[in-house]
Amino acid sequence: MRHLCLLNYRQGHVALDKRLNYEYHAFVVYCDADREWVHNVLLKRMESEEGIKLCIHQRDFDIGKNITGNIDKYFEKSWKVVVVMSNDFAKSEWCQWEVDVVQERRRRQGKDAFLLIMLKTIDS
Asked: For the TIR domain, which residue ranges apply (predicted)?
């Protein structure tokens, strides 16, 4: 992580010291219907090409632990949260619960706690 911070500094970006305490740059919240895009496009681009380490529940969560405990644990290990929005996401009660957790984190940490990606236009 320190190498990435120095590289960003040299390119004119100022590194935030708080990020050094996190294992992941971002925790990604998405619905199962969008899994292919998240794994094949977002994950590939961010980790392979940009050097951004993402926390993806299907890959990184502790096997055998309950889902809510895993979410809490890995939210705490992640500097930011990326929410991938789509119609399927909007219809999922579980995804809505995760967004509620993100909103609570946003209230505690400030406005810059998460990034929203509109993968597909949301129907009203």
From this structure: 22-124
CB atoms within 10 A of CB 81: 24
Q: Give the Cα separation of 22 and 26 in Å (integer).
A: 9
pLDDT range class, residue 20, cuts 50, 70, 90: low
Tell me if the domain spanning 18-118 has CATH number 3.40.50.10140: yes
CA 104 to chain centre: 15
CB 57 within 8 A of CB 43: no
Looking at residue 66, the DSSP 8-state letter turns out to be -
Residues 45-71 have pLDDT tens digits of 999 988 999 999 989 999 999 988 898
Strand boundaries in the chain, DSSP class E: 24-29, 54-55, 78-85, 114-118
Provide the residue ranges of all domains of the chain, joining segments of one domain with +: 18-118
What's residue 6's pLDDT?
A: 39
